[in-house]
Each structure stands twice: as structure tokens, then as C-alpha cells.
Amino acid sequence: MKRILLLFASVLLAAQAIPEVEITAEPSHHLILQNSYVRVFYVDAPAHADTLMHWHRHDYVYVILGDAHVSNDVKGKPPVDVKLPDGATRFSPATFAHIARNLSAQPFRNVTIEYLQDEELRASSKETIARMDETRGLDILQGGTKEILFVNDGVRATEFELQPGGVVPRHHHTGPHLLVAVTDLDIRSDVSGTGPMSGPMPGHFKSGDSKWLPGGYSHTITNAGKQPAKFVTLEFP
After folding, report:
1. Is residue 5 domain-resident?
2. Furthest C-alpha separation in the chain
3. Which label site among 2, 37, 190, 227 has the fewest CB atoms less than 10 Å from its CB?
4. Which residues, other chains included, contact 64 with Cβ-Cβ below 8 Å and sequence gap of 6+?
5. Which of 72, 91, 118 is the last residue of a domain?
């Protein structure tokens, strides 16, 4: 019994001794975009590698790139074994520190998007959140699908899948939004009206690329490539 207690104490001390770093100091997290709304990280952990114990101090969304199998070791909690398919998009509330242990023979890659205004967003009126949530569900498009996945902190996450030539019909963006490419994309945005964004706008993205877009315009989106296209948007109120 004494030996078991000593072993438990040594394990507990070792866990407490694990150094903690801010997310910006974690080597697998690469900052690729930042503004007053978001910080966007491209995460790339090698096969069978662990991240450092790092802090998430803001609510965030992550988009998985490639099938993933990880152990999520949150500080102070038992590890959780997690398997996620390519393109899985999830929301995680702050605040916590954790280690992501890659249990796969493939790199663990994702795009992590922190909401820098999460406190203000959580305080958004129920009417604003309800308005963004009212159209949640799957829509069948011309050559594709659009699915509103969830609304958290008043931010609406939507997944689009388009076959070659598939079209997202004309829609309006009131607020700014972030586009995250799950696959390589070759898309065309046809913007209505006049102004600097009007007319056809080609977009070429590699898997994992992110682009911040302003609000206040209407457009259609067409998959101009030869391969199926998949991307996620986060639309802010």
C-alpha cells in the first residue's frame, strides 16, 4: 500500500510539474491571422507527438483537417480519447489548459479560431442569437449542400460542400465572417451592386487557409474547380 501511495504521489507531482505556456508560445500553433475579432492558428502536430500544455483563454472553434485521433488531456481532468473526421467543426468554451496527444500515424492538423470578443459576444441579446439560429439545418443547393452547424456566442458556423459547378445562391452578409478552407478550393464569388468588392472575384485556397471578409454585401459562390469543395464560415453578428 505504501508503495502504491508513493507511486500515486510521484505521478501527481509529475503532472503538477508540467510547464504551461500561452497558446502563442506553443510550437504546433502557428498564428496566421489576427484582428479585433479573432486570432486564427494553423495547428500542425507530427504523428505520435504531443503539444505542450497550453492555455485557451478565449472561447474558440476548431476545424479538423484530415481524420484525427487524439487524447485530450485537460489539466485537472482524466484524458479523453477523441476521434474526429476530416472537416469536423467544434466549439470549445474557455478557460482551460490542455495537452493534445496525437495517437495517429498521421499529422494532427486543424484551424483553431479564438473569439477575442467572447465576453461581449456572450452578453449579446437573446434576440440576436435567436435570429442567427433560426435557419439552422441542412439545405440542398444546386450541386451541393449548406448546413448551419451551431450558433455559439452569437457566431454562426456553417459548412458548405459543392461539387464542381455547384452554386451557393445569392445571400447577404450583414456582419463580417471568416472562411476556412477544408479542401483545396477554386471558387468564384459574384458580388452584387457597386463598390470595391463588386463583380466576379476568384478565390484560390489551400486546405487550412483562412480569409477574413467584411459584411455589407450580397453574392453567389460557385465551385469553379474540378474537385469537390468543402469550406466552413463563421459569421459574426
Report:
1. no
2. 78
3. 2
4. 84, 85, 86, 87, 88, 89, 109, 110
5. 118
